[in-house]
Every structure is written in structure tokens, then in C-alpha cells.
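Collaborator request, handled under Task 6.
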Amino acid sequence: MADLVSRTALWRGRRVLLTGHTGFKGGWLALWLHEHGARVTGLALPVATDPSVFEQLAIGRRVDSRIGDVRDPATVAAAFAAARPEIVFHLAAQPIVRASYDDPLGTYTTNVVGSLNVLEAARRAGVGAVVMVTTDKVYRNDGAGRAFREDDPLGGIDAYSASKACAELVTASYRAAFGVPVVAARAGNVIGGGDRSADRIVPDIVRAWERGEPVVLRNPTAVRPWQHVADALSGYVLIAERLLDGTGVASGAYNFGPPPGDRRSVADLARALIDGLGGGVGIEIVPRADGKEEAPTLALDPALAERELGWRQRYDVAAAAAATAAWYRAAGGGRDDLTALTLEQLGALVPR
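C-alpha cells returned to the collaborator:
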């Protein structure tokens, strides 16, 4: 069985509410929780892609899957009543920067009001641990290119980044004013098998490779804190364990991302993925011209999570790209049991 962390017995029989379980990261986390004996209730919008990791990993057979919108407080309250959760992982979000330019209102209501609904339900239910998943993009990016630390100012120009920063303010308020045991998890740019979202680098590369077309890059020199999905999930799980076991956590937010020496550009990641998929397609540079700007450099300093939680990155960027490519190759080759491969990749996180 795959171990993100060493406290696996802590999860047996635990009642967990997981929002966003029909999505990429939510699917991987749902699988891990189920494998460790947790009783998982999922709340999310319907599956948005075909294929989807939700179907490929048979998540609907592993959790009590409830379809609904976190923007509706009655829907959230009903999910809490059904799940009676001890732990909440809040992953449901509008997660795409470029989509936030097209629908800023939907982005803000999902990411801010949705988070508020979850926190209020958790407060009323007396939940013992809440992990609020945000993003590396919550920081006010001054363009200096340095790695952000947890005490840096929050901000954001696009609606996605700003809405996630707002969600963090709501999170801090519920922690300070109401004593809700909630911690924000700021992951880097997460990659891994099964992501099929629009306007994300890995799915875009995979789709181009599947069609035998050149991979189109809008901003090849942009630098991001790429990390494998299993590394991000290990951070989420560690936070929940610390909240559950009584040792608590010293901080209200933690960064999870690669160390400063493992930064890579979009072009670097694209080449590694194309090679891992077997090659056969080139790269075409098409500079953006739609005004949907994104920061040229994003980097996180994970030192606080390393020091206080004992978190460590297990996949460097090269290994993350190789594992991601292996997952898509297996899916494209008709491998029947992608679940076993996913658990194998999660198993790389057994503490050493």
C-alpha cells in the first residue's frame, strides 16, 4: 500500500469530506484516503473532462460521491450532515488563471464564497481538521523572482490569484475569530497523470502528443515551481495529521514546492515531458496576444514546511516529469489498472 506519510493507522475509519473529488488532485487524494481505510464523502461539480481521472481510477466506487456546487450553502451543509466529517480537505475551486479572465465573477464566487461556505459548515460541525488548499499564486508578485515565504504579502492581479488570496484572508479570520482548526496549503504548479484541464501545460502537451501535433508554448521562458501531485498531497496529509494527533501546527499556512535549485522553465518541462512520452512532436512558440497576463516567475520557499512538518520533496522536477509521462503512456497504451500505477507513484513517498 502506498504511504504518503508514516501515520497510516491514523486514517483507518476516519470520516473525511473531500471537496473537488472529481478533479485531478482530488481523484489522487480520494484514492489514497480510500486505500488507507478512511470513509470518504466527496462533494464536487460533475466530471468536466473525458477521459477523467475520476473514471480512470474508479473514484465513484471508492467514495460517497455527491455532485453539487460549493457556492450553495445548503448543498455544502447537506454534505457535512451526511459525512459528519472529522477532517475536511477543501480542493474544490476554479483553478485556471486564463479562465479567470473570462469569468471573474464565477472565479471569485467559487474560490471565495465556496471557501466561506465550507469554513462556516466546518465551524458549525466542530470539525477537528480543515486543510484549505490554495496556490503559489496567492503572493503579491513584485517580479523580483525570489522564492516567496509564508509571511510575504498576499495579492494577485488576475481573478484566480486574487480570489485565492481572498480565500486565505477568510481562512485566517475563521482560525483567529472562531478557533476553526484550519491551515492553508500553498502548493506549487502540480503535475501528474490524469490531469485533462484546459489551458494547463501538461494536458496541452499530452493532447498535442496524442494528435501528433507540435506543442504550442505561449511563454516558454516562464519559471514555475513544478512538483509531482504526490508531493503536494503529502503536504496536505501532514497538515491534517498534525491537526488530528494533538500536536497541532505552529503556522497558519505552508508552502509546498521544489527547493530553489530545482526551478525549471515551461520549455524545460515541455522538453522533459515530450521525451518521456516518446518524442515525435516538436515545440512551436506562439507568444500570447490576448492580454491574459501571467507572472514570468513563481517560486516558493518550502523551508517552513520542512522545519515544522518534516515535509520533504521526493520527486525532483525531472522525476516528476518522468512519472507523469509514464502515467499518460500507460493510459494511452490501454493499461487496465491505472490504479496500481497511481499507487506505485504515491508509494515513492514512503519516508526515508
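The cover message to the collaborator said: "The first helix runs from residue 24 to 35. The mean pLDDT is 92. Please let us know whether this matches your experimental observations."
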